[in-house]
Amino acid sequence: MTQLILEGWVSVLAALQAQRRSIDAVYVQQGKDVRNLGHIERLAAEASIPLRTVPAAEIDALAQGSSHGGVLALAGERRFEPLEALAAAPGWVVMLDGVEDPYNYGQAIRALYAAGASGLVAPLRNWDTALNVVARASAGASEHMPTARADVQDALAFFKGRGYRCLAAAKAAGSTPLYAADLRGPLFLLIGGERRGLNAAALAQCDELVSIPYGRDFKAELDVTSSTAAIAFEVMRQRKLSEREE
User: Fold this and answer.
1) How far apart are alpha carbons 99 and 142 in whole angstroms?
2) Do residues 214 and 99 share a domain?
3) Where residue 12 sits, what CATH number does that domain have?
4) pLDDT for the residue numbered 171
């Protein structure tokens, strides 16, 4: 089994709370004032995970960077949900496809989690190779977010077959402005990366394309972190408004 390193109290605490991957051991630096150490110690003890207090040199030897804050964990690979689990309680599920930068990927997940997305579909690539960056950029949300893995066409077919409206974020002719789109009800939303975007076959399978209107004539596209945040919080706004009207 591949062994991975999680660094920093936010990432370590999130992994312990979420329990979506095995944790073999937690390392804490001797004499270091580690934030939320008591919470980390309690969760590690409850899960029978060894917690070792070690010299700074041992932490530095294991760490990939210098911003670990005196705590890290030896972790296993992520356990993913089946697509069926994401559809068990119809909500809004997002797939980030074609995102290449792990920092952007983590930031996008952070926005989705904060806005209340019920699940994430990850493409068939191993983001655990950049676990540290994704976990830190997402402020631990990547560990908490219910996540499945699938090819984009398989994910579209699955959610369409279960009555989800499938929308894609695309700046294209005929797309619906974000604030005019109906983002309520069971929703599967595709968001593409800045460089490649979404392929034509995926766009053709979607029920509707939505685009983010700008406040001035600006030709450049938003990056995936900004566009995901704008879309996610509009989804949240519409759904909260709908709840109040019921």
Assistant:
1) 15
2) yes
3) 3.30.1330.30
4) 80
